[in-house]
Structure formats: structure tokens, C-alpha cells
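Running this now, will post back.
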Amino acid sequence: MAELAQPDPFAVARRAMVAHQLRNRGIYDERVLRAMEIVPRHEFVAPSLQRDAYDDNPVPIGEGQTVSQPYIVAYMLEMLEIAAENRVLEIGTGTGYQAALLGQLAREVFTMERVPTLFVTAKDNLERLGYTNVKAIQGDGTRGLPEHAPYARIIVAAAAPDVPTPLFEQLAENGRMVIPVGPPDIQELLLIRKQDGTAISQKLEGCRFVPLVGEQGYRG
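Update: finished.
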């Protein structure tokens, strides 16, 4: 796992993001906060948008996709309760920012991206920044990645019409999944826990994500 050498041009902005957007809004998991302070979010957006990387907003990354608002990223990670020994599956790599955060928190991360151009960008970003415990894979994330299952934690960075069956099947017993579910215009962020093979679902808060496209999601 990589830690960006300090100081850097965005170090102050990153610390301010953690202090004002995360701590002040109730994010308390110190491991999540430290990861958010370490990972250089500006490295995952276009050079022309780097000045916006630490604002309280999503940032476009092309192909109709975004890097999500810092608060919602931190909140989802906090709800996962990731342990250092966990194997994690991420659906929706984008340009790799959240995957890098997961790489700071977990032992092993598999991340899936459907869009070829984003996959290439994410793979290059993660390799360049030294995240050797994160493996990026191109494919339909709604099918999951059964060859490496089960996963202690699963995080989905796009909105599904329902929880994709393959993802729940690949979730380990007592595992946790965070996923936005609902129609394209507005969704509920759900925490899914697997207990005795049964899904225990908890609504967290309203949200709005891009659609999860795939066999078990929305049609592209």
C-alpha cells in the first residue's frame, strides 16, 4: 500500500476536506479518516479538474461517470466496518479513487469496471501510486467475481434496481455490503448483512448515484 510523500500541493486541501466535510459531519472511523487524508484524490481526476478534487461535490471523470462526493465515499466505507484482514470486492472502479482507499483499509481488494476507458485509467492510476494489493478487472460487476469469493465486504458505487443476486451469493457469512438501490433518479443507500445465509437489510440514507449497468442491473 502506498502513502503519498508529504508535503504536496494539495495536502492542506486534503486535511481541510477531512476536518470539515468528514469529521464535522459525523464520520468517526479513524482508519477511514486517515485513508481519506492519505489518498491523493486529485490524482484520480483530469488535470483541469484537480483544483476541484477536494470540494464537497462529485467530480466528473468522463463516460457519464463521477468520483463521488467525499462525504458519501467516507460514509459508505465507515458503514462497511472494514478490517485489515478483509478481502473486499468493489463494483464500479471509475478511475480508482475508492479502490485506493479500500487498498489502505483491507488486505486484498478486487475492483470491477465495465467501461474500458475507465478501466485502463484506473489500472494505470493504481499501479502508478503503488497499490499492489488492489486488482482491477474489466467486466460486468453485477455478476460479481465468483472465482475469488467469498468477500467479507462488498461495496457498490452505482445504483441497482435491486440487490444483484450474484453479489449477495458471493458475500461471506457475517459479511457486509453497502449498495444504493432504487430508480435512476433517487435511491436508498442500503447496508446488507448476511446472517445464516439470509439478507438483513438496513436503510441508511437517501442518495443519488449513476445507474449500475449490467445483466443484473440496468440495461445500457
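The domain at 11-207 is CATH 3.40.50.150 (Rossmann fold). More later if anyone needs it.
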